[in-house]
Amino acid sequence: MDSITLSPTAILIAAAALLLCSVVVTAAAVTLGRRSRQPRRSATDASITGFLESQAQTLGARLEEFAARIGELDARRREESAVLQTKFDDLSTSTRSVAEEARTLANTMRDNQARGLWGEMQLERVLRMSGLDEHISYDTQVSVDGGRARPDAVVHLPTGRSIVIDAKTPLGSYLAGASTTDPVAREQHFADHAKAVGNHVRALAGRGYDEVVPGAVDIVIVFLPSDALLAEAYRAQPQLLDQALELRIVLASPSTLLAHLRGVALGWREERLAEEARTIAELGRELHQRFSTFATHLANVGSALGRAVETYNKAVGSLERSVMPQARRFEELGAGSRKTLTAVEQIEDRPRSISA
Predict the structure, then answer these.
(1) How far apart are CA 32 and CA 44, in angstroms?
(2) I need a labelling partner for 113 at 20 to 30 A (CA). Which of 86, 120, 156, 336 fits?
(3) Which CATH class is domain 106-270?
(4) What pLDDT, in 10s, does the model give residues 46-92?
(5) Stretch 347-354: mean pLDDT
(6) Is 348 exposed, middle or buried (0-12, 13-18, 19+ CB in 10 A)?
(7) Does residue 119 sit in helix, strand or coil?
(8) Which H or E run contains 181?
């Protein structure tokens, strides 16, 4: 036999109907009992019967209102359930799409070339965020040692030295460990991941970048493009940090490398400020020298003007003593011209000397 499923509305209506029947039956039983015991009280029985009928009608009306309200709530529940089902279907579709894209990304990252390109892109992103200037503070994909070596980045220090950065992306074992639900298998995959990182460290230590890159310090940075890659490697093999430092290799994730490069960028900023201060001091010395030269020339001009005034005054004195009396004599004898001789005044002012 098939099972019968009752909706909440049907259950509530049935309960209300049972309650109403119970009230009616109880009232009838009380009425009949009273009539059997007291047949002479017909007026009282009629009053009680009327009261019970009135209460039954009121209760019935309220039950109808209650049933209508329950019907409205049930209709709303059905509408909301339909909307919720639609949202759930959309979420399921989106989840399947994201899962498919994640599987595609994971499959792509299993390719060595794709992993290497991703690591290089992450490294360039961190370099740009650090505030360093490309081709001034750092260079990427630099060929050294006659093209036999090509570090992913060379960061130049203000002191003239350089730091070599090599990007590595060991994702195979890490992705396998992150995707499995078996804890034993997960730990084994993460151990293999730490081993792969250690192999990269030993291989990089043998390249001798400090000997082939001009000005390179004897420390090489191995960049892992995700903080989780470095964290899982350290967790699976805690001695990895000390082993790398013994080989003069520093393991760095995006966050730690960014902190290192910010320090380098600050050094470059201070170096530029010091260079600008030296340039300003040199310009100040040159300007002071030019002021001194100009003041000397101006003082020579003043001295020349003073000598010219002195010579002019001497000429005016000679004119007044020797020339003007004879000229006036011509006027007295009637041999003068129509113009009147004008007295020539001496210059009393002198050029002002330049004080230091």
Answers:
(1) 12
(2) 156
(3) alpha beta
(4) 776 776 677 777 777 777 777 788 878 888 888 888 888 887 777 77
(5) 74
(6) exposed
(7) helix
(8) none
